[in-house]
Amino acid sequence: TEPPVSARHDVAVRYVPATTEAQVGGDWYDVFEQPDGSTVVVIGDVVGHDTAAAADMAQLRGLLRGIAYDSADGPAAVLRRLDSAVAGLGLHAMATVLVGRLTPDPGTGGARLRWSSAGHLPPLLAEPGDGVLTLITPRAELLLGVDPAARRTESEALLEPGSTLLLYTDGLVERRDRGFDV
Questions:
Q1: What is the pTM of this model?
Q2: Would the CA dihedral through 168, 124, 41, 78 be positive or negative?
Q3: At 17, is the pLDDT very low, low, confident or very high (cuts 50, 70, 90)?
Q4: Exposure of 155 in the CB half-sphere (CA atoms within 13 A)
Q5: Separation CA 156–CA 138 (nearest Å)
Q6: Which residues contact 95 (CB under 8 A, 6 or more apart)?
Q7: In what order do the strands lie in the sheet with 95-105?
Q8: Fewer CB in 10 Å around end: N or C, the chain?
């Protein structure tokens, strides 16, 4: 879906299949505003590259959106609730997911990002004049769908006005003919 038009954020999305044949798969993104004025950003990647992965992705995306929309819960609690729903509904889906919540920071005019990651690649933050920072967490956490009791934690970063936050899936950085670090 097209991202929402926001008075506070410029949002751009791009989805390009790896090959012409791979028109279905498990990668997804979502951006939506909450009633309190926060903006939720989501990036996820269901295990698999077929119609089953696409179906799992659609269910996870809808569940996550419903859980997060009208909730004051932070990203870690949203992921815990989603993990519980996956187990309780018998979905048998596994995915990496990153959920972030952007709230205005009146002190700086920027935004505060709180995020939690279920095994997803770290977000990148390009700050004006400071280059690109990889927003790493102290410890990687389990993929969604592995253990509904998995520990979920949150991290926080301040985004200065003019900063760019990049969320991406492994399709952007993995190549069969090159090492991951390259």
A1: 0.89
A2: positive
A3: low
A4: 16
A5: 12
A6: 26, 44, 45, 46, 47, 56, 57, 60, 118, 143, 144, 145
A7: 27-33, 39-46, 95-105, 110-118, 155-159
A8: C
pLDDT over 60 at 153, yes or no: yes
What is d(CA 143, CA 177) in angstroms, rounded to the nearest whole number?
Answer: 26
- C-alpha–C-alpha distance, residues 153 and 135, integer Å: 14
* Inter-residue contact 94 to 19 (CB < 8 Å): no
Pairing state between β 110-118 and 95-105: antiparallel
Average pLDDT, the chain: 87
Give residue 102's identity as a one-letter amino acid code. L
Tokens of 87: 């187990």
The C-alpha atoms of residue 134 and residue 130 are separated, in whole angstroms, by 12
Both structure tokens of 127: 């700050």
Using CB atoms within 10 Å of the CB of residue 144, give its burial: 0 to 12 exposed, 13 to 18 middle, 19+ buried. buried
Conformation bin of residue 58: beta by default, left when phi > 0, alpha when psi is -120 to 50:
alpha
* pLDDT score of 21: 55
Using CB atoms within 10 A of its CB, is residue 100 exposed (0-12), middle (13-18) or buried (19+)?
buried
